[in-house]
Specification:
Blueprint: H1 5-13, E1 18-24, E2 30-40, E3 46-51, H2 55-62, E4 65-71, E5 75-86, H3 89-95, E6 113-127, H4 130-146, E7 159-163
Length: about 160
């Protein structure tokens, strides 16, 4: 049975531990940086961690619209939504991963640590792995030989857009 685009997006999201968080600076420039993923909810919402006084906190205070992208060599996900800082010590303890102590030497009790919750509003994915990858290669080959574009946008196994 072919998964729905919603299911496919959620399945792909589970494959990533790092994301690029894209924000807008107060001067209007777009900026992205890698972030460890703390949690991905079934709804598609994403939890990240940062320091309370990091530049990204100034950016999201001015414009809370963000983009989160995740990528491997054959899988790609993009989420758009709004971001909110959440200073919840219980949630931090729940999500805490000891490897984050590199950035937060005080551990889960580090007073500079704050969560960022991205309320996902829309998502898009591309999956060129496994059988989907073989199908994509066939479509790409046909497109190359015929001078057209590959027709993969209508195959939910390969590409999909989701309203969250």
């Amino acid at each position: 049975m072919t998964p729905t685009p919603d299911q496919k997006l959620h399945d792909l999201l589970k494959d990533f531990g790092v994301a690029m968080l894209g924000t807008r600076t107060p001067g209007g420039q777009l900026r992205s940086r890698p972030m460890a993923v703390a949690q991905i909810e079934d709804s598609g919402n994403v939890w990240l961690l940062t320091q309370k006084h990091s530049p990204k906190m100034d950016e999201v205070a001015v414009d809370n619209q963000v983009n989160v992208t995740m990528q491997s060599s054959t899988k790609f996900v993009s989420l758009s939504g709004t971001i909110s800082p959440v200073d919840d010590r219980r949630k931090i303890a729940e999500l805490w991963n000891e490897s984050w102590k590199i950035w937060f030497p005080g551990g889960k009790d580090d007073p500079s640590l704050v969560l960022l919750r991205i309320q996902a509003e829309a998502g898009e994915y591309w999956d060129n792995s496994g059988v989907s990858g073989i199908k994509y290669l066939i479509e790409a080959g046909k497109a190359y030989l015929s001078g057209t574009r590959p027709d993969v946008d209508h195959d939910p196994k390969i590409h999909g857009k989701v309203a969250l």
